[in-house]
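**Fold in C-alpha cells:**
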Amino acid sequence: MEDLKIVMKCENTIFADEVKMALEEAGIPCMAVDETITGAVGGYGPNPAIAIKVYKKDLEKAKEIVSQIQEERVIKIWCPRCGSEDVEPIEGGMKKSTYWKRVAILLLTLTLVWFFFYQITPILTICLIVIITVLGLIYLPKNQYYFHCKQCGKKF
C-alpha cells in the first residue's frame, strides 16, 4: 500500500470539496481528512483543518492543480472610481493627533462619570453630555481607509 501525502490543508469544507472535485476530475484519487477528529472525545489538535491527501505518485500533478485553484481564488482589489487594479494598501495605525483627540474625549467622559457620581445639577450634566457628544462627532475619524489608488488618488 502506498503512502498518502498531504497536498494541502483547507480551512473549511467548501474549499476542501472544491479541491477534491478538481483532483478527481483530473483522475487523481484523493481523500479529505478532518484533522479535528482525534481519538479523544472532544479533542482538537493545535491546527484544525481538512487535509487533502493523495498518493505519493500523484503528488506533483496534484500540487500543480492546487496552485491553479489557489491563484483563481485570489481576490483582486480594484478602485471603485476608475476601475484600476493599481492600488496599494494604506499602512494602519493612528496619527498622533487622532490619538490625543481620543485621549481627550476619554478624559471628558471620565469627568462626566465623576460628576454623575457626585450628583451635580442636571443642567450642568446635560451641558457636559452635549459637549462630549459634539467633541466626539468633530474629532473622531469619520472614515477608515484601507487602500489608495495610484491612478486617480482615491482612498477607499
Summary: The mean pLDDT is 77. Residues 4-72 form a domain with the Alpha-Beta Plaits fold (CATH 3.30.70.790). The first strand starts at residue 4 and ends at 10.
